[in-house]
Design a protein that fits this description.
This protein is mainly beta. It is about 5% helix and about 50% strand. The chain is built from two helices and 44 strands. It has a five-stranded mixed sheet. The chain has a five-stranded mixed sheet with strand order 34-38-37-36-35, with no helix packed on it. Strands 3-44-43-42 form a four-stranded antiparallel sheet, with no helix packed on it. A hairpin with a 5-residue loop joins strand 24 and strand 25. The longest helix has 16 residues, at about 460-475. The chain is globular, with a radius of gyration of 24 Å.
C-alpha cells in the first residue's frame, strides 16, 4: 500500500531562528504507551493515528484523549493503512495464514473506528489499495507470494458494502519495491510505481507497461507490455498523462504515445534523451519532459541523483524532438509551467532557470537567477557561499503567482513576471539523524490541498459522510496562513535546543516556534492546525502547538 509521507512538502530543515522574535508555542499533552510505537501520522481531518504492537489508536489532537482504539488490529505496519480522501473511510489490510495466504480488508470510519465493513475474500498478499470513489469501488492488488517480481491479482470491492464486484489479474510479472517500514522480514509493495490513471470507466495500470481495464467489469481491454523500471530507483519514469484520445507515457529514456481506445502505439520518440524522463506535461502541441532527478534506491536505501538533468520538448503529434535543454547542474526540481508567461521553471543546485516555452530548435533561457540568500542564519561561512551538499527539493506556486524554491537548507521566493527575488533565507541543518532522507522524501510529493467530497451516495452511509464533511469544513475554513514548519536549533552558544519554527511563505520570516527538548525527534507536522507530534524513546507521544 502507498505510504503516507513523513513530512509535508513545506517542511524544510533548518538550524537557527530568523530575525525577529516569533511567538512561542506550548506543549499540549503527552501520552505514554506500554509498548513501542511503530508509527504515527496525521489524517486529513487532523486526528492522529498511532500504530503499536497492541493495536491502532486515534487521538483527539487538541486534548490527547483517545477517540477510539482497535486492539484487534495488532502489529499493523503503516504501509497497510490507507485513507480515502473526501470520505470517512480508513482502509486497513492484514495478511492471514501461512500456506494459503489471504488478505483481510477492513473499512473503518476514521472518526469513530467502527467497522463499516470487512472482508476476507481476497486471496494473496496485499501490495496496494486503489480507491475509486467516483465508481463506488476500492481495488485491492495482491500477489500470491512474497517476491521481488510477481503477477498481480485485482479485486474490486463495493466501497459501501465490501462485496466483491469483480476479480481479474495482471499476468505479466511486476517488479515490486521493498515497503517502507517493513522491518527485518522484507515485505514488498507497488510504491516503486506511479499509481494508476483513472478516467471515467477505465483504469490504466502503469506497472509492467501500460494496461487498460474496464472499471465496470474488470476486463483487460488492451496492454502495452514493457519494462518501466530503472534498476532499483522508485518512480524514475513519469506518471502517464491523458490528452484527448492519446495517453502519453515515458519508458527507458523514451516517450510513447498510445491510442487510449485501441492500445495501438501511435509513435515512439527517438532514443536521444540519454536519461530518464521523470515528469511530463502537455501544453498545446508540445509534450515537455523533465530529465533526471533524485530518486530513492530501494536496495541501497538512499537517494541517488540520476543524470542527465534538464528538459526536453517533443511534438505531441509525431514524437519528433523539438529541443533538449541539458544545462541543469547537480540537481533538478519538478517543472512549473507558467502558460501565462510562456515559461518553464526549474531549479538546479545553484540557479532558478526559466526556459522560453516558444524556443525554436534550440532551447532559450528566458532568465537564470542565482540562488543567493539575503538572510543567512548560522552558516558560519566567512565567504558567504552555499552550504555544502545543499540542493533544491521542489518548486511550488503561491496563489499570487510567486514561486517558492524549497531546498534541504534554503527557501527562496521569486516573482517570475518581474524576474526578481522577493525574499530568500538559508539555514544550516541541525545534527538530527535521518533529516536528509526525510527532506528528500518530499521531493516526490506535491503539497496536498483540502479534501473534496466525492460522489459517494449510498443512502445508508450518509450520516458518516455528513459528519466527515462537517469536520473537514470546520478544519479547512479555519486554516491559518501557509507556513514552512522548520526543524531547527533555537538559541545561542551552548544554549541551543532543538525546536520547530513556522516560517511564513509570504515574508520568509520566522513567526512562531516551539521547543522539543529532544535531540533525536521523530516528528509529524499538521500544517493546517500548526501542531507537532513527537515520539520520545519510542513509547512517549508528545503534542505541541506551534501557534
Amino acid at each position: 500500500m502507498k505510504t503516507l509521507k513523513i513530512f509535508s512538502l513545506s517542511l524544510v530543515i533548518a538550524s537557527v531562528l530568523p530575525a525577529g522574535r516569533p511567538l512561542a508555542g506550548s506543549q499540549l499533552w503527552t501520552h505514554t504507551f506500554n509498548r513501542e510505537i511503530w508509527w504515527h501520522r496525521v489524517t486529513d481531518l487532523g486526528t492522529l493515528l498511532v500504530g503499536t504492537e497492541d493495536g491502532i489508536y486515534s487521538f483527539n489532537p487538541e486534548t490527547g484523549q483517545i477517540a477510539w482504539q482497535r486492539e484487534d488490529l495488532k502489529k499493523t505496519p503503516e504501509h497497510n493503512v490507507e485513507e480515502i480522501r473526501g470520505t470517512p473511510f480508513l482502509l486497513i489490510s492484514q495478511a492471514e495464514g501461512k500456506i494459503k495466504v489471504k488478505t483481510r480488508l477492513y473499512a473503518l470510519n476514521v472518526l469513530t473506528g467502527k467497522a463499516i465493513w470487512e472482508t476476507d475474500r481476497v486471496k494473496g498478499l496485499g501490495v496496494d489499495v486503489v480507491p475509486v470513489p467516483s465508481k463506488g469501488l476500492v481495488l485491492l492488488l495482491t500477489t500470491p507470494y512474497t517476491a521481488l517480481k510477481s503477477e498481480l491479482g485485482l479485486t474490486a470491492l463495493d466501497l459501501a458494502t465490501g462485496n466483491v464486484v469483480w476479480e481479474s489479474e495482471l499476468k505479466q510479472k511486476v517488479r515490486l519495491a521493498i515497503a517502507d517500514g517493513s522491518g527485518k522480514f522484507k515485505k514488498f509493495d507497488l510504491s516503486g510505481h506511479h499509481p494508476p490513471v483513472i478516467e471515467r470507466d477505465a483504469i490504466y495500470f502503469t506497472c509492467a507497461g501500460l494496461h487498460k481495464y474496464d472499471l465496470n467489469t474488470g476486463k483487460l481491454l488492451w496492454a502495452q507490455q514493457y519494462d518501466v523500471t530503472e534498476k532499483n530507483l522508485k518512480r524514475a519514469n513519469a506518471q502517464p498523462i491523458i490528452d484527448g484520445d492519446v495517453i502519453y507515457t515515458s519508458v527507458r529514456r523514451k516517450l510513447k504515445a498510445i491510442d487510449k481506445r485501441t492500445g495501438q502505439l501511435k509513435w515512439e520518440s527517438e532514443k536521444k534523451f540519454k536519461g530518464v524522463v521523470a515528469e511530463m506535461a502537455a501544453v498545446g502541441d508540445v509534450i515537455y519532459g523533465r530529465m533526471g532527478g533524485n530518486f530513492f534506491d530501494t536496495l541501497k536505501q538512499r537517494w541517488a541523483l540520476k543524470k542527465p538533468l534538464g528538459v526536453v520538448a517533443v511534438d505531441k503529434h509525431t514524437g519528433e524532438l523539438i529541443w533538449k535543454y541539458d544545462k541543469a547542474r547537480n540537481g533538478i526540481t519538478n517543472m512549473v509551467i507558467r502558460e501565462d508567461l510562456s515559461t518553464i521553471l526549474i531549479a538546479d543546485a545553484r540557479h532558478l532557470i526559466g526556459l522560453d516555452a516558444h524556443s525554436g530548435e534550440k532551447p532559450r533561457e528566458a532568465f537564470r537567477e542565482k540562488l543567493t540568500f539575503n538572510l543567512k542564519i548560522g552558516l558560519g561561512d566567512p565567504k558567504g557561499g552555499r552550504v555544502k551538499g545543499d540542493m533544491p527539493v521542489a518548486i511550488s506556486t503561491r496563489e499570487d503567482g510567486i514561486v517558492v524554491v524549497r531546498g534541504k537548507q534554503h527557501l527562496l521566493a521569486f516573482d517570475p513576471q518581474k524576474r526578481n527575488t522577493v525574499w530568500s533565507v538559508q539555514y544550516r541543518a541541525p545534527d538530527v539523524s535521518g533529516w536528509t532522507k526525510l527532506t528528500m522524501a518530499e521531493a516526490s510529493n506535491q503539497a496536498a490541498g483540502s479534501p473534496t467530497q466525492n460522489q459517494w451516495t449510498n443512502a445508508d452511509r450518509w450520516e458518516a459522510l455528513a459528519n466527515y464533511a462537517q469536520v473537514a469544513d470546520q478544519r479547512f475554513s479555519t486554516a491559518a496562513d501557509k507556513y514552512a514548519y522548520i526543524l531547527t536549533q533555537i538559541g545561542e552558544g551552548n544554549q541551543k535546543r532543538v525546536g520547530v519554527i513556522g516560517v511564513s511563505l509570504h515574508t520568509g520570516q520566522g513567526e512562531r516556534q516551539v521547543l522539543l527538548n529532544d535531540e533525536n525527534p521523530n516528528l509529524r507536522v499538521d500544517e493546517v492546525a500548526g501542531r507537532v507530534f513527537n515520539v520520545v524513546q519510542k513509547v512517549e507521544l508528545i503534542a505541541f502547538s506551534v501557534n
